[in-house]
């Protein structure tokens, strides 16, 4: 039995069916889109409100529990230094006062302000919760004075500078008498020096090197280094011996000087000048001998003349009263 394929719908029916399906799908899609937009707006509003609440609540919590919390007000500033800087000077330079909130302190700015002081070599600043700041300072160690003239008193001169081993010049502060034992470097104009400035002059740096190399020597001590000549260092020691050094190879010249003192022995105290400028020869001069005092001649005492008996003159003969026996 043969079976024929029979169309159940014609072209017109199929077109009508497709038109109905499209209409249904568009309405459902419109509803779905509206619902998605609504839920998206609600989510955006919710998360925006949540974030705003977190921000406002966080700020209020920070204000109440951190910024305005009296437990975090700075009330303990621990200060320690190994030099002459005072607590008041350091706190004033760093604009650091008690009573401020410890979280508002810019520790790096405080450190930079203290480190800018000429006397400060290293500084350590720490913030310790809840209300403490520690300041630890290592000051520069001066090893000499820089003055215009060798006869100046650096402890009273307003133009004198202290200088450390790295040639940093510093205005003396505090008690100057504690540095009175330091040697002086003279012959250098100090008018243009500024507090905290590094001295780049070659002669001054050579003088500092000489002072540093001789710091542990107990046999002779440097009192004055004159750099005015421009090509040599003229040193006067504590015994007023004048020593001339070449600014180069100072360590070798000091070794020669030590050997010279060992050779001279007791004659060392009679030295007047020592010239170490030459590489091979050392020139010495001695103090002139002190002449022995000449004994003063003894003058015999002059004889004392005894008066001879004088004869009575007629003028001496005066009338004497008579006695009862008739004698004068």
Protein model, in words:
The strands form two sheets. The protein has a nine-stranded mixed beta sheet, covered by helices on one side. Strands 1-3-2 form a three-stranded mixed beta sheet. β5 and β6 (169-170) form a beta hairpin. It has helices at 11-67, 87-94, 107-115, 202-213, 250-264, and strands at residues 76-81, 120-128, 132-139, 142-146, 161-164, 169-170, 184-186, 222-226, 233-237, 242-245, 271-275, 283-286. By secondary structure, it is α/β, with parallel strands linked by helices. The model is unreliable at 314-328 (pLDDT under 50). α2 (87-94) packs across α3. The protein is built from five helices and twelve strands.
Q: Provide the low-confidence segments as ranges.
A: 314-328
N- and C-termini, Cα separation: 231 Å
The class by helix and strand makeup works out as alpha/beta
Query: Largest sheet, described in full?
Result: 9 strands, mixed
Task: Give the SSE string.
Answer: HEHHEEEEEEHEEEHEE
Mean pLDDT across the residues is 82
Kindly estimate the percentage of residues that lie in beta strands according to DSSP.
15-25%
Helix residue percentage = 25-40%
Count of runs of 4 or more consecutive helical residues: 5
Spatial ordering of strands, largest sheet: 6-5-4-7-8-9-10-11-12
Bulk shape: elongated
The Rg value, from CA coordinates, equals 52 Å
Number of strands: 12
């Amino acid at each position: 039995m043969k079976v024929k394929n029979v169309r159940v719908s014609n072209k017109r029916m199929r077109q009508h069916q497709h038109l109905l399906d499209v209409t249904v799908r568009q309405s459902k899609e419109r509803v779905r889109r509206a619902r998605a937009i609504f839920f998206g707006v609600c989510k955006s509003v919710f998360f925006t409100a949540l974030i705003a609440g977190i921000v406002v609540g966080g700020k209020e919590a920070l204000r109440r529990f951190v910024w305005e919390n009296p437990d975090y007000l700075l009330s303990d500033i621990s200060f320690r230094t190994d030099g002459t800087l005072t607590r008041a000077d350091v706190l004033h330079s760093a604009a650091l006062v008690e009573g401020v909130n410890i979280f508002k302190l810019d520790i790096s700015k405080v450190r930079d302000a203290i480190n800018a002081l000429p006397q400060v070599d290293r500084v350590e600043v720490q913030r310790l919760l809840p209300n403490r700041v520690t300041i630890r300072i290592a000051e520069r160690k001066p090893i000499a004075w820089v003055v215009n003239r060798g006869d100046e008193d650096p402890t009273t001169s307003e133009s004198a500078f202290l200088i450390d081993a790295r040639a940093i010049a510093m205005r003396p502060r505090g008690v100057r008498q504690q540095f009175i034992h330091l040697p002086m470097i003279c012959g250098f104009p100090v008018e243009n020096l500024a507090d905290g400035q590094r001295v780049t002059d070659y002669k001054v740096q050579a003088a500092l090197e000489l002072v540093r190399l001789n710091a542990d020597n107990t046999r002779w001590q440097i009192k004055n280094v004159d750099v005015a000549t421009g090509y040599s260092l003229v040193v006067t020691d504590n015994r007023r011996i004048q020593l001339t050094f070449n600014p180069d190879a100072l360590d070798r010249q000091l070794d020669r000087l030590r050997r010279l003192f060992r050779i001279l022995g007791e004659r060392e105290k009679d030295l007047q000048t020592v010239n170490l400028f030459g590489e091979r020869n050392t020139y010495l001069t001695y103090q002139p001998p002190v002449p022995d005092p000449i004994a003063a001649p003894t003058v015999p005492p002059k004889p004392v003349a005894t008066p001879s008996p004088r004869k009575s003159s007629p003028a001496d003969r005066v009338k004497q009263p008579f006695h009862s026996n008739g004698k004068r």
